[in-house]
Write a structure and sequence with these properties.
Helix content is 32%, strand content 23%. The chain is an alpha/beta fold.
């Protein structure tokens, strides 16, 4: 039986750069900053739309400087990496300000990078022109089950991948600003799963998406519950389901929210669950004809998607800044995920399969 090397969490190779955080909501306060504290990353400043909220978060995480505005933080000479957790309609302006700031070496943006593919392409090209590193926080790639699954695939334990599926039957806590947009689930929830599938299997050849409204979501929306079929250039067929209804949840109704996944190959099968929204570690089990004699193996770990995956996200950016290489989560790659989201919306709008060759996004360049 061939020995497998499986690591649920990446090594911390670099943690020297000074971080300025923009935003003080849940994702920053509970995920970014919790991960950075555990990893020993140096957060030197914070700013948000509400100075008092930023001050509360700064006190909790011992951040020495609170700026009145994001603009002041971006030009703070001590800030080398700008970490943005802001609504996507406001994010491009902050990215552009950071690209123009001489003290800033690298930027971590949230997904979606922008509200449109065109804006994402523009930001990609502007980062190249500025010679700055722009990375996008597709943190599901650093979920422990996704990391180990990728290693199983790369080491051949599953053979050639044939079929994959991600099933989400869980209720998101939609942020208030999303009510102002005309795009909901695909751009803000499915994007996790679509990007993770690209991480695992490469580029998509064609996409078909269907949707219906979510009965629970009270504000207007086009894409509520979404089911997407992906055919990859390699031949892999994949399904991504975002069932954001997940059934009624009145008092006394037992909660069974869950996200599960399964990958089948010519030599093995892997299956697992994502710890969100239960607050438990993600899980993975695999059976391989070549690496486990067909028996099921279940590695275990203590770390979780939230917050520990955010360590890997920031580490890959710090490593890129230190070495002058492209980050693993580079903006050119993220534009291809944005193009996949755009293709899914076009599939819904026109009621047909959309070929990715028809979604023009250019090849982009490197920032190093």
């Amino acid at each position: 039986m061939t020995q497998l090397e499986l690591k649920p969490d990446p090594d911390i190779r670099v943690n020297k750069f000074k971080i300025g955080c923009i935003g003080a909501g849940m994702i920053m306060a509970e995920c970014h900053l919790a991960a950075y504290a555990e990893a020993g990353f140096d957060v030197v400043a914070i700013a948000s739309r509400t100075a008092s909220r930023a001050a509360e978060v700064a006190k909790r995480w011992s951040i020495p400087v609170v700026h009145d505005t994001p603009a002041a933080l971006i030009t703070d000479p001590d800030v080398e990496i700008v970490d943005i957790a802001y609504p996507p309609d406001q994010q491009p302006a902050l990215i552009r300000a950071a690209l123009a700031a001489p003290n800033v070496k690298a930027i971590l943006a949230q997904k979606p990078l922008a509200l449109t593919l065109e804006e994402a392409i523009a930001l990609r090209d502007e980062a190249v022109a500025a010679g700055k590193i722009l990375s996008v926080n597709q943190n599901m790639r650093f979920d422990q089950s996704m990391q180990v699954l990728k290693q199983l695939l790369d080491q051949g334990a599953l053979g050639d991948p044939v079929f994959a599926q991600i099933n989400m039957n869980a209720i998101p806590h939609w942020q208030g600003f999303l009510a102002e947009y005309d795009r909901l689930t695909l751009a803000n929830m499915s994007i996790h799963h679509l990007d993770a599938l690209r991480f695992l299997f490469g580029e998509v050849a064609e996409v078909t998406s269907v949707t219906r409204q979510d009965p629970r979501t009270s504000f207007d929306h086009d894409d509520g519950i979404v089911a997407t079929t992906l055919r990859f250039a390699s031949g892999v067929l994949a399904l991504s389901l975002e069932d954001v209804w997940a059934g009624p949840r009145q008092d006394g109704f037992e909660d069974d929210q869950v996200i599960t996944w399964r990958v089948e190959g010519t030599k093995g099968v892997a299956k697992g669950s994502i710890g969100w929204p239960t607050g438990a570690p993600s899980t993975l089990s695999y059976a391989s004809a070549t690496h486990s004699n067909g028996k099921w193996v279940t590695p275990e770990w203590d770390t979780m998607w939230f917050p520990h995956a955010f360590i890997g996200v920031m580490e890959q950016l710090q490593y890129a800044a230190e070495t002058g290489t492209e980050p693993a989560l580079n903006v050119a790659d993220n534009v291809r995920t944005m193009a996949l989201v755009e293709a899914a919306y076009q599939s819904i709008e026109h009621g047909k399969t959309v070929r990715m060759n028809d979604i023009k996004h250019g090849t982009g360049g490197t920032t190093t």
